[in-house]
Amino acid sequence: MTSLPPTLVVGCGLIGTSVALALREHGIDVHLTDRDPEHVAAAVERGAGSPEPVRDPALVVVAVPPGATAAAVREALETFPEAVVTDVASVKGSIVRALDRTGEIDRYVGSHPMAGSERSGPLAASARLFEGRPWVITPVDGASDAAVRLVEEVAVMLGAVPIVMEADAHDRAVALVSHVPQVLSTLAAARLVDAPPAHLALAGQGLRDVTRIAGSDPALWRDIISTNAAEIGQVLGAVRDDLDAMIAALDDRDAVGTVLEAGRAGTRSIPGKHGGDPVELVVVNVQIPDTPGALSRLFAHVGESGVNIEDLRIDHELGRPVGLVEISVAADRADTLVERLADQGWSAYR
Fold first, then answer.
1. What global pTM score does this model have?
2. What residue ranges define each of the domains in the chain, with the CATH number in brackets?
3. In this structure, what DSSP letter does residue 307 have?
4. What angle do CA 54, 160, 275 make, to 5 degrees?
């Protein structure tokens, strides 16, 4: 794979530049293009590749917004008649339908790395962005085996886990697990715009968790939502029905409890680490001073306890130089961690 001839990355945003950076780490000769010269310059400055034109790339990675992807893929197929062309757009069905009548469809393999950030642009890119993440591959009917293998090899090279799906199945899946959560996060955050400052002063980590992705690039998400509108609409319709049922049941404790239990059951269906079965977790809370070195000492003592950290987050107490570290561990190991940390002088509790 390291002998792959030059690769062209079309689009130097977060995903395109991250792909380029990761390929460069494997010695691939990467060339970059973007309609915004400043994006190219920033990506080049970061070492993602060369701005010089390339004559015969073996692979073209199209990393432009979903609404522009089909046209960019078509142009790449026509301009580079020997190249395999893939894209990394988060919507696939509309692209496949737009390419149905084009020639050389055997050289096109759609793909979508399930990785990203609420930040955008080449300065937010990272060669590590795809490590351990699913990378969906959506071959069209007639795609050559060699083209599919090449895109799979690239995904693996970048540390991702290839998953083959049909384009329409992919769009239904991402509507549920990515696009609708973005919409719901945005709607929750929008409720805060006119909130009194005294109310916002009560905000804790739960609100930050729910609204974090609402800070994502609005232009990108306008494009994603419009190109996957039908599938997103199906899920949002079901959510609307759930909201109506919840509003009607607010005075009925049993009915509210049923809704809450359904939500809790949904969280249990999310795959655990490394794609395995979900593990029942318990949060161990540890009060920690907001001073240099405190977190490293805590980590050292957790390591000495022999308890594995499954997840971690830090909240900060209002008006005090103190934080609260929430350490998620397997339920059967929580008491051990509390005891070991207490022995080391930490204020820890479940």
1. 0.80
2. 7-166 (3.40.50.720), 171-268 (1.10.3660.10), 279-349 (3.30.70.260)
3. P
4. 165
